[in-house]
Write a structure and sequence with these properties.
four-stranded antiparallel β-sheet, four-stranded mixed β-sheet, 386 residues, Butyryl-CoA Dehydrogenase, subunit A, domain 3, 3 domains, binds flavin-adenine dinucleotide, Butyryl-CoA Dehydrogenase, subunit A, domain 2, 14% strand, Butyryl-Coa Dehydrogenase, subunit A, domain 1, single chain, alpha+beta
């Protein structure tokens, strides 16, 4: 596959960047079409073509834009990345499935451990590696400060013991950004540290979980006395919570932006079908909702790109995102009634898979009830109800 390499895209103005980007997408539409994934495949197969797609975008310079030079980027604002994700989606090519994890993990790693970021992120950005996020545990999902996976001090490093669950892509990942307890259990969020762990470390095992979409994209990860070198600590000991809170803003901000682009693309596919069979009123209401999400996510993204700490306000984006995801796929289900349930075509399979995945949007990255609680108490300042 031949692509024109441009390493200086990050320094272009937003308008010049957009013009070059759209021209490149048009020029490479055939190649982009060839690397689009078949989402019905297993996660091993389904992450192979996104990695090729990611590499193609990287080699052409688009995935370098908006990332610092130290990690293989060409500089410029994070808004350039947002332009890339949306423009690809508008042209019918949703961003590679491997990128949301990159967007969630890397900004926080760059801030809290620039040296680790310099050493390890370039391979992740190029698509040569895939990483996962090891935060949740069976008794510590919403209440993450209750986590029990422990990191004990050892010679020149740490020994990790414990169990994580619901980790996206862990079974096909090369590294894991892990949160583990380094203080006492009673220290809650003040006794947690973050680490960058190689998934091929002896004592680390990821076991895939098949979800109701039929894909085995989630995993649980077992740590049995797994040794992690001292220089893989991210930030400071017992300050992993600060790292996680910084990370969550990107998980809610940039991720919401990427998904709104994907949702707009889904609506564009649905619109002509709705025009034939109805329900047009529902289409209008859903479009308005997804547009509201776009505007809110854009505001958050601008603040993050400017270095602002968005904090609890990012929960508003997360809530809007989960309701939009479910509304768009509810609309698909009511529009394609019959075909949605019974058709064997790849297209129907895709709509069903998307429908089931969007049911989890009000759980992953922080459940809706918890987000409402954060908005009520920490954004609106309402009293806590016990
Ligand atoms: C598709 C998907 C991908 C994921 N990817 C990852 C990943 O890559 N890495 C990772 O670490 N984790 C991941 N997760 C896990 C996710 O972050 C957790 O599922 C989420 O934080 C909720 O935790 P839980 O599942 O333990 O549910 P629980 O915390 O047990 O919550 C169950 C229900 O109880 C409600 N509830 C809990 N506490 C309260 C309260 N105080 N007040 C009111 N209601 C409450 C919740 O809102 C929810 O409805 C993923 C989850 C999904 C579904």
């Amino acid at each position: 596959m031949t692509v024109s390499v441009d390493r200086d895209l990050g320094s272009l103005s937003p308008a010049a960047f957009q013009e070059r980007l759209e021209a490149w997408i048009t020029e490479h539409a055939t190649q982009l079409g060839e690397v689009q994934p078949d989402e019905s495949l297993s996660v091993e197969e389904a992450t192979a073509s996104p990695r090729l797609y990611q590499r193609m975008l990287f080699d052409a310079g688009w995935l370098r834009a908006g990332w610092p030079a130290e990690i293989g980027g060409s500089g410029g604002s994070a808004e350039r990345r947002a332009q890339v994700y949306e423009s690809l989606s508008v042209a019918g090519f949703p961003s590679p499935e491997t990128l949301p994890t990159l967007e969630v993990l890397v900004p926080a790693l760059v801030k809290y451990s620039p040296e680790l970021a310099r050493q390890f992120v370039p391979a992740f950005l190029r698509g040569d590696e895939l990483w996962c996020q090891g935060f949740s545990e069976t008794e510590a999902g919403s209440d993450m400060a209750a986590m029990r996976t422990r990191a004990r001090v050892a010679d020149d490093g740490w020994v990790i013991t414990g169990h994580k669950v619901w980790n996206s892509y862990a079974s096909v990942s090369d590294r894991c950004v892990l949160l583990a307890r380094t203080g006492e259990q009673s220290d809650r969020h003040r006794g947690i540290s973050a680490f960058l762990v190689d998934m091929d470390t002896p004592g680390v095992e990821a076991r895939p979980i098949t979800t109701m979409t039929g894909r085995n994209e989630l995993s649980e990860i077992y740590f049995e006395d797994a040794f992690v070198p001292a220089d893989r600590l991210i930030g400071e000991v017992n300050r992993g919570w600060d790292f996680a809170m910084f990370l969550l803003q990107w998980e809610r901000g940039m991720y919401a932006w990427m998904r709104q682009a994907w949702l707009h693309q889904k609506l564009a596919r649905l619109a002509p079908l709705v025009a034939e069979v109805g329900p047009t009123r529902e289409l209008g209401a859903t479009y308005a909702r997804v547009t509201a999400l776009r505007l809110v996510a854009r505001r958050t993204l601008r603040r993050l790109a400017d270095g602002d700490f968005v904090g609890p306000e990012a929960s508003i984006d997360k809530l809007l995102l989960s309701s939009c995801e479910q509304a768009v796929l509810d609309l698909a289900r009511s529009t394609l009634r019959g075909e949605f349930e019974l058709d064997d075509s790849a297209e129907a399979d895709q709509w069903r898979g998307d429908f089931f995945y969007t049911r989890s949007a009000s759980i992953y990255g922080g459940a809706a009830e918890i987000q409402r609680d954060i908005v009520a108490t920490r954004v609106l300042g309402l009293p806590r109800v016990r």
